[in-house]
């Protein structure tokens, strides 16, 4: 019997309009990844202390071949923490390690995003006693310095490294992603496999920045996708209006 493994590209850190600082509807995000033109196999919507949109995205992608995992970015007492693979949001404002534990109890993986960055609510080194993975590449950072610090920290402590775009707009989605190797053919892989791989840290995982030529097209593709999305919503609304307008006539017709 031959075993086949697959390498999936997942953006583990994105924000929708469910975040106070995000702006995209999840429907648009799901369609954008389904289009396959940003080279992602899946993603996680991790809004700040909100999970509704993330769960909605999972539902929307149920029948498609992309993998959407539920998640949330929790504001702990000591800084931000990504909960990947949870279906309810952990309570905010709790101690960092206490939140890590509750995420694990819920069956999720706990990942520390943009560590050590005070201006972005990054958790300080001494608070991280144990973690499933460290975001060693965050596409938001303008200098590579903070990413290099996070990477070194992960390597020194033997933590897995992941990457996330931390996208707050469509054009940023997929600008960074995590490659996760799983011992299954791709069509059999489900969200739980990815979460398990993250929890076990036994997969080959590398944080990557999308190649520059792709990054340049991200904005163009995002704006094309956005126009199509809003245009189809507009058509839906127009159709509904026409339907409403015609109804009295139809009812008269049916009654006579
Ligand atoms: Zn954050
Ligand atoms: Zn974030």
Describe it for me?
The structure is a single chain. This protein is of the alpha/beta class and 256 residues long. It folds into 2 domains: 6-210, TIM Barrel, CATH 3.20.20; 214-255. It has 6 helices and 9 strands. The chain has helices at residues 26-34, 52-60, 96-105, 145-157, 191-200, 212-255, and strands at 6-14, 42-45, 67-76, 79-84, 109-112, 133-138, 160-164, 176-182, 205-209. A hairpin with a 2-residue loop joins strand 3 and strand 4. Helix 1 (26-34) runs parallel beside helix 2 (52-60). The chain starts with 5 loop residues before the first strand and ends with a helix. The protein binds zinc ion (2 copies). One zinc ion (ZN) binds next to loops.
Query: Which small-molecule ligands are present, each listed once?
Result: zinc ion
- Specify Rg, calculated over alpha carbons: 20 Å
Query: How are helices and strands ordered from N to C?
Result: EHEHEEHEEHEEHEH
Proportion of helical residues? 25-40%
- Which CATH architecture of the largest domain would you pick? Alpha-Beta Barrel
How many strand segments? Answer: 9
CATH C-level of the largest domain: Alpha Beta
Tally of domains: 2
Overall outline: globular
Q: Report the CATH superfamily of the largest domain.
A: Metal-dependent hydrolases
Strand content: 15-25%
Largest sheet: 9 strands, mixed
SSE class: alpha/beta
């Amino acid at each position: 019997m031959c075993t086949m493994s697959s390498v999936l590209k997942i953006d583990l850190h994105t924000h929708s309009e469910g975040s106070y600082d995000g702006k995209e509807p999840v429907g648009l995000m799901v369609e954008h990844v389904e289009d396959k033109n940003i080279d992602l196999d899946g993603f996680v919507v991790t809004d700040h202390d909100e999970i509704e949109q993330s769960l909605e995205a999972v539902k929307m992608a149920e029948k498609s071949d992309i993998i959407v995992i539920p998640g949330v970015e929790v504001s702990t007492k000591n800084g931000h923490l990504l909960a990947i693979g949870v279906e309810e949001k952990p309570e905010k404002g709790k101690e960092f390690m206490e939140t890590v534990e509750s995420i694990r109890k819920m069956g999720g993986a706990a990942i520390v995003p943009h560590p050590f960055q005070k201006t972005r609510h990054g958790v300080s080194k001494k608070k991280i006693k144990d973690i499933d993975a460290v975001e060693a590449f965050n596409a938001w950072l303008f200098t590579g310095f903070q990413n290099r610090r996070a990477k070194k920290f992960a390597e020194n402590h033997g933590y897995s490294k992941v990457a996330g775009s931390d996208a707050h707009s469509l054009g940023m989605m997929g600008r960074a992603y995590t490659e996760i190797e799983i011992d299954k053919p791709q069509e059999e892989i489900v969200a739980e496999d990815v979460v398990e791989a993250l929890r076990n840290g036994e997969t080959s995982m590398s944080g990557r920045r999308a190649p520059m030529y792709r990054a340049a097209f991200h904005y163009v593709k995002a704006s094309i996708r956005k126009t199509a999305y809003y245009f189809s919503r507009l058509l839906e609304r127009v159709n509904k209006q026409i339907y409403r307008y015609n109804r009295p006539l139809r009812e008269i017709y049916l009654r006579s």
